[in-house]
Amino acid sequence: MSESNFTTKFLKLFGIDNQGHSRRDYLNIWVPLISVGLALILGMIVIAASGRNPFQAYGLLFGDSGLIPGGPAWRREFAELLIKSAMYIATGLSVALAFKGGLFNIGAEGQFWVGAIVATFFGYWSPVAHTFGAMYIALGSFGWIAQLLHGAICIIMGMLAGGAWAAVAGYLYVKRGVNIVIGTIMLNWIAWFLITSWLVIGPMTPPSQTFTSGTFYVADTAKLLRIMMPTRLNTSILLVLLAAYATWFLLYKTTIGYEIRAIGYTANIGMEAPRAQGINISRRIMQLMFLSGALAALGGTFFILGMQYQFPNTAIMGYGWTGIAIALIGQSEPMGVVLAGLFIGALRTGATSMQVANIPKTFSDIIEGMAVGFIAMQVAVRYYLVKIIQHRRARRDPPADQEAAA
Amino acid sequence: MKALEVRNISKMFPGNLANDNISFSVEKGEIFAIVGENGAGKSTLMNIIYGIYTPSGGDILVNENEVNIRSVEDAIKLRMGMVHQEFMLIPRFTVTQNIVIGDEPHKGIFLDYGRAVREVRELSERVSLTVDATALAGDLPVGVQQRIEILKVLRRGAEILIFDEPTAVLTPEETVELFVTMRKLQAEGKTILFISHKLKEVMEIADRIAVLRRGKLQGIVNKKDTNEEELARMMVGRNVVLEIPKIDVEVGAVAFACHDLHVRNNRGYEAVKGMSFDVHGGEIVGIAGVQGNGQDELVNAMIGFSHPVSGSMELNGKNMRMVTTAQLRKEGMSYITEDRARRGLVMPYTVRENSVMGQHLDRPFSRGIRMDYDKIGEFAEGKVKEYDIRPGDVYDTAGSLSGGNQQKLILARELSMPHNFLIASQPTRGLDVGATEFVYRKLLEEKKAGKAILLISLELSEILGLSDRILVMFEGRIVGETTPDKTTEEALGLLMLGVGIDEKVQS
What we know:
Chain B: This is ABC transporter ATP-binding protein. Chain B: It comes from Candidatus Cryosericum hinesii. Chain B: Pfam families: ABC_tran (PF00005). Chain A has helices spanning about 5-15, 25-50, 55-65, 75-100, 110-125, 125-140, 145-175, 180-200, 235-255, 255-265, 270-275, 280-310, 320-330, 335-355, 360-375, 380-395, 400-405. By secondary structure, chain A is mainly alpha-helical. In chain B, the strands form six sheets. Chain B has a six-stranded mixed beta sheet, with helices on both faces. The interface of A and B includes residues 254, 256, 261, 275 and 405 of A.
């Protein structure tokens, strides 16, 4: 690098420089932006077609999404946006990381639940909870150390469990040839029924409670620290940004990421090229599934330690599935996943406000769905983008030989 | 009459003038060859004529009328047909289904399969291209699959046939058959454009030959008035040493040895049936044989992709029968593959990323789990210069390089890894003269450096020119061992086809 100013040196500390990986196709940035833009335009048409005012709808949707500062409730909305987005980004990173290795981890949903239930357990389980409770009192004004440690243990245990859960699918794929999509989706149901049909209404429920009350509540020391009083914004957004950075670093700066991407690029032609160079494909795939599962489980721990404080006996479906959409919109790039996660988080935060004006909140789901649809059609989007670029170039500087021919 | 004429065709890609003002015309009933190195612009030119690319400038005339070819459909309407290098067949469909697809005879909304079969049989009789109309395309040998492609094109009424490197995938016998077919088509008045970089074939089949170099037309010559050497000079722009110099190196210790090796293919049949041989340092052992006689399975076993069923395999005296590719590489195995796209390189990876794959876990390319892309970049820059890998930007993806430059990149990577045993499996397949010469030179340098080299090739001239010892492989066995000075191409050819093999050796 020619310039060695402070900024570049500082960024280099974190491994960020412009030579980490291949020169990226700049269309990668434009495709999701255009897809989201098209979805928003089409969304307006759909709202207008239903006889409602699209400008009013979007005004409410984005005005109350927490994205735009101002208004009496902005701090609360902003907090809600970040709390939601943190979970979406976690599952989005999970799916994106697996995509990079050529695997479709459709089981982020189940891994999310596994992470959530394990975090719940370590949050209330008395040997742990009492230890940290005692520590909190003993430390006095340094009690936050106990909180940090207890939270960390819950998160780490949740991530390990979610990772192990996903690694089962990885193992079945590598050793038994079970398709990863089938394996992960089956494990989703196993996780779902283990948790909702047994743990939540059985061993993890306080004996005096009814079946519908969910599990024990976690101890106060296990809860994520709040960082913007009086809202319930907690450290989850910071943790997930750290996770996004770690994912990026893993993919583009480490030997593991180098091998994972080589495997992903050749996944549909038998992965022979990396194999012939001595890369241990089986081991990497299992590791990749573990890491992917751990990321989804991280979202699950946020759900418990930052929002619910117990595993409720109501369906909490959808965070993992949304992760797939986010990974797609984010083009499987960690930075893209962060932005896509914030976008989806904003749509979902603002959607409630639309209902006030008698506009169903499903319209935000429609926009989300159409954005994913346009991403899925990215071959077409790219095609027209290239056409437009070529057209503009041709107008700006016509090829010399054509002039000569004329 | 001129069946096809192109005038001043140019094609500009970003940063690359692929075709520069090319003009030529092809007479009706002529076999017109277009030769050039990989990346010379042959395929681009054909894709323009066939409507896949639009030219940046120039005109195309068919039957002396100016035409505007905007798509493949337009080209087909103008009675053109392309036989692609990669066949576009559906393996699970029958020959008939493959031929009629897209233009099926039908009864109402149902396919009239009976009539389709009859049509295909009539057509194949008329042009005497024998195919079994009801066989599954995927079960047929490559040569027959190509015939299906030709029939498909003919059924659509093609008068101008474009063959894009048709012999690249064929065995020598299949090539001979293809040439018979091409002559028959010529006799029927069809016009044929034949794209190739194999000069011997061009000299055999073409009437006139156009030579392209770096997007420019170097000249059009009559076959009668030229020879291989002249064509090679026009193609690469300098004299090419097609003769391989003999060098004598003192033969060292045994590097690789196998004894009574049995290997199964992926369908569970034994493809290598008891092979025993060794390779010493400082010698090139050539394995000659027709494709599909167990070479692929032998290589797979040697690089750790499959484990032999029985027999022994040793590298530098260590048992290597049940080990992984990583262990073999650690022990000093390097591997040059013919299958660059699948097995050689990760195509979406850059030159830089590809250049260290296999040694990326070693210093200085990584430390702990952290890759050192600065060091890798320096390494790649050096290799790009040393091996003259063009266009020379280490940030280009491997997939954007021409075949010859991809192979140079593979050589650069494999030869810079610590090794003493090199497996070169069809190292010049699909390469032009210049790149082929480069590969030969590198192999000889390796030999001089005392490395043990196993060369597996279908090209007899290559085997005879490079090897110190030649093993002939037929149906999974070694059916003969000889040296280049004691044999000829003809004698080897017969052995490869299993002619005159002693019963004792065979059993």
